Amino acid sequence: MCAHVLVAEDDPKQAELLRRYLEREGHEVLVVHDGRSAIDEARRVDPDLVVLDVMMPGADGLDVCRVLRAESDLPILMLTARSTEDDLLLGLDLGADDYVAKPYSPRELMARVRTLLRRTRRSPEADRQVFQVGDLLVDPVRHTVTAANTPVDCTLAEFRIIETMAAEPERVFTRRQLLERIHGFDRFITARTVDVHVMNLRKKIEPDPRRPVRLLTVYGVGYKLTCA
């Protein structure tokens, strides 16, 4: 699975390590060392994946994530030395699809890269059906969501959640089930990650996110998607 990967890492040694491991997996790698260059190169080459360090000069990784996510749904994997849960969730809130906390195992990082790339390269057989739940349409082929005929921009993780739930409307999904759908089994990811994605989805698909009618909480269990 060869992919074009943009690595934004200001530490030259870390950047070179990432390059070597990614090239060993067969990927084409472009490395930049500051946030401004990361934005410029992402716009120029349209990579399959961005591996983005949080602490960078020019513009930090969170700012870069915010800009890139406003322009596209390309997968973003963040690297962060900020290990508190709130810091990690902030990256997800801005639209990152996954994160790895430093210091990290290169093997773990490559596994995360493979998982993200698999999610973006689905087989045609898996993508034939368009799901409709009330006035919400989820199209896996075109990777689009519309609510009341209004296009909805979703991150990769948000799309995986809404796609999973739209395939089985009215079914109650636990947070763990949704986590396994968007991240696979990963003991380092917490259930609160799902809450952040759901909160962001409600801002996009609900007439009033404070009083959701589509994406509902089932207290003590999880979430379900229902006809509005």
What does this protein structure show overall?
This protein is α/β, with parallel strands linked by helices and 228 residues long. The chain contains eight helices and twelve strands. The strands form three sheets. A five-stranded parallel β-sheet has the order 2-1-3-4-5, with helices on both faces. Strand 11 (215-218) and strand 12 form a beta hairpin. Helix 2 (35-45) runs parallel beside helix 3 (61-71). The longest helix is centred in the middle third of the chain and has 15 residues, at 106-120. 35% of the residues are buried. Residues 123-127 have low confidence and may be disordered.
Order of secondary-structure elements: EHEHEHEHEHEEEEHEHHEE
> Roughly what is the average pLDDT, rounded to an integer?
85
The end-to-end distance, rounded to whole angstroms, is 40 Å
Number of helices: 8
Strand order of the largest sheet: 2-1-3-4-5
Q: Tell how many strands the DSSP assignment holds.
A: 12
